[in-house]
Amino acid sequence: MSNQIATFERVRDVVETLRKRNVAPTADRVIAMVGGGSKSTVLSHLKRLRDAPMDDDAIPPSVMDAARVALNEVYLAGRSAEADTVRAATERLSQAVREQDAQIEELAGLNERLEWSKAQLIKQLKAVKADHEAAVERAEALAKENDGLRSELAVERQNSQTRVQDTLARVERLLTPSSTGPDVARPDRKTLGLPAKLQERRG
């Protein structure tokens, strides 16, 4: 377990930290900072570090820590920017939804008014249709009545003509001299029922 705690990598990181603090990296100090480990293991790691050439390409732990902090700041900034972008997009979407709701409400009001106007027009159309049908019925009734009156008038004319012709025929018979002679008495106009002017001409 001690060897697992005091690994070479952890010992190396602790040594780098102590050197930056200008503190000698002794085995006891390394064990204390690592949090455990056998002294012999730590000494072996320290010897390996002293003997190993310095790798110029190796990233010091301090640089890694700084990079870690910087990356964390970049990440947080990215999250903040993303949150602002999402917030702005959400606000635009909400505004669009509000405008759309307003348009829908306006269209609903317009549709309601159109429906009311349509109902009124249908009502008026039905009234006009009923008036038209009533007028047609009255016209048909008047036409039938007119036809009846015309028929009656034609009959009356025919009867009047017949009566006039009969009267004229009687007058002609009465005014024609009789074969018995001139002493035959002529009928009075009252008896014939002739107009006064005709009687005056005959007298």
Describe this structure in words.
- This protein has a domain at 1-55.
- It has helices spanning 2-5, 8-20, 27-34, 39-51, 61-175, 189-192, 196-202.
- It is mostly helical and 203 residues long.
- It is rod-shaped and about 190 Å long.
- The model has no long low-confidence stretch (mean pLDDT 81).
- The protein starts with a helix and ends with a helix.
- Helix 2 (8-20) crosses helix 3 (27-34) and helix 2 (8-20) crosses helix 4 (39-51).
Question: What global shape is seen?
Answer: rod-shaped
The largest sheet is: none
Query: pLDDT average, as an integer?
Result: 81
How far do the termini sit from each other? 175 Å
Written as H for each helix and E for each strand, in order along the chain, the element string is HHHHHHH
InterPro entries: KfrA_DNA-bd_N (IPR021104)
Protein name: KfrA N-terminal DNA-binding domain-containing protein
Organism: Devosia aurantiaca
Domain KfrA N-terminal DNA-binding: 7-115
Notable traits:
203 residues; mainly alpha; 7 helices; rod-shaped
Spell out the blueprint of helices and strands.
Blueprint: H1 2-5, H2 8-20, H3 27-34, H4 39-51, H5 61-175, H6 189-192, H7 196-202
Helix pairs in contact: 2-3, 2-4, 3-4
Brief rundown of the structure:
The protein contains seven helices and no strands.
